[in-house]
Amino acid sequence: MIFGLRLLGGYLGDTRILVKLGVLAEKAGFDFCWFAHDPFMRSSWVTATAIATLTTKIKLGLNFKPYTIDPSEIIMLAATLDEYSCGRCVIGLGTHSDLMFKWLGLEGRRIIPLIRESVLLIRQALSGAVCDFKGNEFKWDSNCYLRFKPIRNRIPIYISGFGRDLLELSGEIGDGSLPMLTPPESVEYVLKHIRAGIRKSTRKTEDFDIVGLIWLSISKDGRVDEDSTKSVIAHFGPYLDADALKYIGLSVEDFAPINARLAEGDLDGAKRLISDRMLRLAVIGKPDECLEKLCELEKKGVTHLSIGGPLGPDPEEAIRLIGEKIIPYFRER
Amino acid sequence: MLFGIRFIGYLGDAKRLVELGILAEKLGFDFCWFPHDPFMKNPWTLMSALATCTNKIRLGVVGTNPYTTDLSEIATHMTTLQELSAGRGVLGLGLHTTEMVRWLGYDASDIEDRLREGVEILRTLFKGEKAGYDGRFYKWFNECYLRFYTQTKIPIYIAGFNKSTHILSGELGDGSLPMITPPAAAEYVAQLVREGVKKAGRSMDEFDIAGLCWVSISRDGRVAEEPLRKMIAYFGPYLEAEALATIGLKHEDFQGIRILVNKGKIDEAAKLVDNRMLKLAIIGRAGELIEVVDKLKKTGITQISIGGPLGPNVEEALHIIGEKVIPYFKK
Question: Would you call A139 and B264 a contact, using CB atoms and an 8 Å cutoff?
């Protein structure tokens, strides 16, 4: 099992705190540091670069939403960070919801061709080729090629998706997939569609990295940071995949009153509406309780865990606990 | 006079550019700028890296355009950088040519109106307010507001490339980023920027005209001829006609160069750069640079953003500027 820490840009603290947590993750033995990158939250590109400066081993998963950034910028950002971090950059491309992009009037863009064509252009440019390309979403001329030699001519691209079609696409064209496992019980549904996508490609399932994105709150004594956990669920719950929610008896409609409170700017009111059932979207508890759930995910076929959400009542302690109790369990077997 | 250094990707890999930025801070530069050109090294990465290694120098991007990056991304990037750097970020929004974004399929003929809407939205976001907007280019809902906030102001400088965009930069920006290649064009651009500032009813005392020049400087007057010729070959064809005219050049003079560059034959194109074209840059020793900066100051330029090859030895060039040129003006 590969371990990634995923830093949410809105809840764990300011950018300097996020950087501190990323540095701590390397010390605790995490393999990857991933970053959420949601509209109007902190920019993962800044935080990833700052962490690159202060670390030497941990891989850095940049996160891009194809609605709001042109592939030419993704190519430059990834190649520059890869150079700066001595080959530690990984590209995460896609989205877990298109609803937030309605805020920006961008929902009319078609996500599947956007991702497909972006992946093609990114791979082509990094390989050193001229990207004279006439697609449905992008029309580039023969001036489009990277003006410096990247240190790697293939930076892994992981696709994040929601819903059957995007999950399948992630298996078909990604080097890895970044599905939300919120709730963790939705793992079989998610894997089924990713594997269907892998079968469409020429790769084998065993060569493919399936990164399950979970929300976690861990502490030595099982204390839960209910406030932060409820904040995360209130903010992101309304955007979760309807087919995944069903696994714990929830529906998108259950989140409508929460969303209405949020639209009024009433986060406290929204948090009060979070039910115990909704708390099951996250993995919560002492190390051994969390371990049990993570082992189940491994058994189902998840190869990499991206641990995000509130992390715990004390995020630094949570990272250390994962490094001391969880990661060694998987490594020492 | 403020002094900025501007590092183009040709100067080395990302780590080297960051090291040069650290040196620039030590030598007393006020600003470190990174150009944002398609398919070159990404300035946002370099600014973020430099923010973690410095504590005084201001960190600016030149020419982030509103086509390849949505305003929401520009706003979150700048505000996150602001948090990381304790308030040292500067946004240079706009273009120095529409041609390069046309490679990517963006027409860009609407750049002026797009900048008007963009600056209004960014200022609203930077104030921590809701940025619902019903404009020609942006139709945003009230959910559009930053979920985190920094109290320090993020200055917006505008990069222009012709008469109307220079005027617009004065009208909209906290500063302007005109190319002064050649330096002889400074008077022409500064006058237009001032016209814009006046149009907006503001005072020049609060406005920074940061002129972007190309420099090659050394102790013995040696010139970084090869990189300078390559740079002129690559960027020369996109320079403004009115600016070129101030040293007797015109776009047609770059036609042969442009054809070769478009074919990826930059070395051959560099051979066609003639001595007149070398006048686009400031070349020589400390004395020559001081003389030009003095003239620029008289035209109303308030910051010189020193870019280009810098010199045959880049570190030496930075030391010359930091030890001879900056002290001359700061005294």
Answer: no
Fold of A2-218+283-331: TIM Barrel (3.20.20)
- How far does A97 lie from chain B, in Å, by closest CA? 15
Q: A15, B80: Cβ pair inside 8 Å?
A: yes
Total domains in chain B come to 1
Q: Residue B10: enclosing H or E segment and its boundaries?
A: none
Residue-by-residue pLDDT tens, chain B, 331 positions: 999 999 999 899 999 999 999 999 999 999 999 999 999 999 999 999 999 999 999 999 999 999 999 999 999 999 999 999 999 999 999 999 999 999 999 999 999 999 999 999 999 999 999 999 999 999 999 999 999 988 889 999 999 999 999 999 999 999 999 999 999 999 999 999 999 999 999 999 999 999 999 999 999 999 999 999 999 999 999 999 999 999 999 999 999 999 999 888 999 999 999 999 999 999 999 999 999 999 999 999 999 999 999 999 999 999 999 999 999 999 8
Which sequence spans correspond to the domains of chain A? 2-218+283-331
The dihedral sign for the CA sequence B36, B42, B44, B50 = negative
Q: What is the CATH number of the domain that holds B105?
A: 3.20.20.30
Domain limits for position B255: 2-330
Chain A residues within an 8 Å CB radius of B83: 14-16, 42
Which helix (H) or strand (E) is B218 found in, with range?
Answer: none
H-helix or E-strand spanning residue B212: strand B208-217
Instruction: Go through A215-252 and write b for each residue having 16 or more CB atoms within 10 A of its CB, e for each that does not.
Output: bbbbbeeeebbeebbbbbbbbbbbbbbeebbebbebeb
Q: Is the peptide bond before A179 cis (omega within 30 degrees of 0)?
A: no
